[in-house]
């Protein structure tokens, strides 16, 4: 399928859940690249807060900067929720999906994730006459299975274990298991939809990030309003007990990470690059242990945050720990031009950049 490029008349892209942590960065990156953005929001007030943030960006309203407007979608799981929103758009970035570990019944998080994802594809099929591409935000949670041993994953892997556990354990399943099951089932529903509709006039890309950290660009008046992954980063670095994490946990490389601004750029590139169509793409910077972020935060000179001491953990621990999870991100390099390698078209942000910029934001907000 043809890629969706910003044009002199500006291509219009729908971003669902636009006031969310990742979605707001997706919208901002699109605007900076010259796309017009229509963001779905649950209420006019939240959407207006985001619009005011974008209007203050350098270049907004200029010839190379896209425009932002709003459309209300109160419930993404409601049938036909996106029917009006998709009319007239050239592409869709579907980011809206519940991200929390507080679901009681697994279906409380699985149903809106799956229904919202399938719903937007159905709406595009019925009313998205101009749509050329749909980009779906999935997750590495739909790919990897934690088993305590070093494992390398790629786009051929699926996290069927979490789905099985959520179904068998029900309410007793861990919150993270319910969430990972929701991402797995929602993304599988995407590719099932593609298989069941071979004559689609548009194609699909799924973007699969791991833990996402970095500064916000949505309206976040207090730390209590941060999203799930940003809250985890905040509590680990900003509280003296590192958010209650043990020294052993802090020094273990259990997970991988990526800066939220890189996630936003990946979504733009997934629209603009023709060869990305029809692909599932992992975007991941590298494995990490929390102690690395703590050590970096405490070594920054000058420190961007001086209001109170940061958590220290056990300095130096974990630097030589073997990663328990590695993602092969070759497709991101080949299809999106994104990698850690010298000379890459787009290099991922480092732990130092992410830490400095995030702490600077916290300081500016007075947290």
UniProtKB/TrEMBL annotation:
Family membership: Belongs to the NAD(P)-dependent epimerase/dehydratase family. Dihydroflavonol-4-reductase subfamily.
GO molecular function annotation: oxidoreductase activity, acting on the CH-OH group of donors, NAD or NADP as acceptor
Lineage: Eukaryota, Fungi, Dikarya, Basidiomycota, Agaricomycotina
Lineage top rank: taxon: Eukaryota
Residues annotated as domain NAD-dependent epimerase/dehydratase: 13-279
Keyword Membrane annotated: no
UniProt xrefs under Gene3D superfamilies: NAD(P)-binding Rossmann-like Domain (3.40.50.720)
Keyword Chloroplast annotated: no
The name this protein goes by in its record: NAD-dependent epimerase/dehydratase domain-containing protein
InterPro entries: Epimerase_deHydtase, NAD(P)-bd_dom_sf, NAD(P)_dehydrat-like
Alphabetized UniProt keyword annotations: Oxidoreductase
PANTHER family listed in its UniProt record: NAD DEPENDENT EPIMERASE/DEHYDRATASE (PTHR10366), STEROL-4-ALPHA-CARBOXYLATE 3-DEHYDROGENASE, DECARBOXYLATING (PTHR10366:SF564)
């Amino acid at each position: 399928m043809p890629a969706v490029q910003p044009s002199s008349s500006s291509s219009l892209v729908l971003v669902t859940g636009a006031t969310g942590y990742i979605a707001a960065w997706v919208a901002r990156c699109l605007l900076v690249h010259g796309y017009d953005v229509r963001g779905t929001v649950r209420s006019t007030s939240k959407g207006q807060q985001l619009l005011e943030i974008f209007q203050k960006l350098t270049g907004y309203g200029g010839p190379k900067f896209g425009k932002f407007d709003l459309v209300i979608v109160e419930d993404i799981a409601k049938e036909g929720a996106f029917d009006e929103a998709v009319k007239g758009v050239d592409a869709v970035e579907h980011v809206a999906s519940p991200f929390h570990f507080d679901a009681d019944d697994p279906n409380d998080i699985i149903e809106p994730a799956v229904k919202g994802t399938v719903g937007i594809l159905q709406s595009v099929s019925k009313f998205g006459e101009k749509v050329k591409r749909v980009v779906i935000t999935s997750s590495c949670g739909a790919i990897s299975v934690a088993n305590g041993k070093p494992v390398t994953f790629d786009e051929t892997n699926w996290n069927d274990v979490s789905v099985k556990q959520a179904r068998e354990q029900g309410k007793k399943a861990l919150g993270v298991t319910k969430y990972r099951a929701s991402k797995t089932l929602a993304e599988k529903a995407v590719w099932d939809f593609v298989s069941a509709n071979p004559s689609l006039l548009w194609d699909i890309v799924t973007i699969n990030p791991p833990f996402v950290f970095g500064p916000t660009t949505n309206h976040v008046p207090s730390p209590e309003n941060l999203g799930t992954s940003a809250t985890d980063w905040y509590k680990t670095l900003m509280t003296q007990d590192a958010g209650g994490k043990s020294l052993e946990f802090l020094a273990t490389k259990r997970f991988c990470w990526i800066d939220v601004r890189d996630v936003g750029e990946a979504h733009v590139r997934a629209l603009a690059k023709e060869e990305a169509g029809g692909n599932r793409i992992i975007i991941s910077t590298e494995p990490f242990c929390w102690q690395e972020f703590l050590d970096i935060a405490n070594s920054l000179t000058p420190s961007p945050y001086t209001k109170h001491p940061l958590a220290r953990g056990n300095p130096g621990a974990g630097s030589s720990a073997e990663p328990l999870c590695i993602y092969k991100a070759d497709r991101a390099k080949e299809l999106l031009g994104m990698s850690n390698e010298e000379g890459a078209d787009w290099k991922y942000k480092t732990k130092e950049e992410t830490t400095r910029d995030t702490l600077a934001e916290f300081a500016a907000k007075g947290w």
